[in-house]
């Protein structure tokens, strides 16, 4: 299993304002600080919605148009929409999560409210299906 994170400058709430080269130092020295170094792949910032959306997120959003736990998840404040065009399958808030199988096929999309720890059973089910996992 390989966790990945993609900071997004406008997805849909612009919480990542740091430059790419500042993000790791921010994690290490500020929040959470204490010398923290992520043990997962951290992409450079990229757009997840709109005309400039990274191809990975276009692919994920097309494969899984809505979060499985909240199919009605939408932006609640139109003033926060900073991209165009706006589509129904847009990432509706920061901290949405996608689970992708070992074959590269998107399996499930989770809303921002879905606790990350609760993805564990889905991950275990995928790992159990993997060749040589018996």
TrEMBL record:
One of its GO terms (biological process) is hydrogen peroxide catabolic process. It catalyses: 2 glutathione + H2O2 = glutathione disulfide + 2 H2O; (12S)-hydroperoxy-(5Z,8Z,10E,14Z)-eicosatetraenoate + 2 glutathione = (12S)-hydroxy-(5Z,8Z,10E,14Z)-eicosatetraenoate + glutathione disulfide + H2O. GO terms for cellular component: cytosol; mitochondrion. It comes from the Eukaryota. Its EC number is 1.11.1.9. InterPro entries: Glutathione_peroxidase, Thioredoxin-like_sf. GO terms for molecular function: glutathione peroxidase activity. SUPFAM superfamilies: Thioredoxin-like. Keywords: Oxidoreductase, Peroxidase. Belongs to the glutathione peroxidase family. Homotetramer. Interacts with MIEN1. This is Glutathione peroxidase 1. It comes from Myotis brandtii (Brandt's bat). The lineage of its organism: Eukaryota, Metazoa, Chordata, Craniata, Vertebrata.
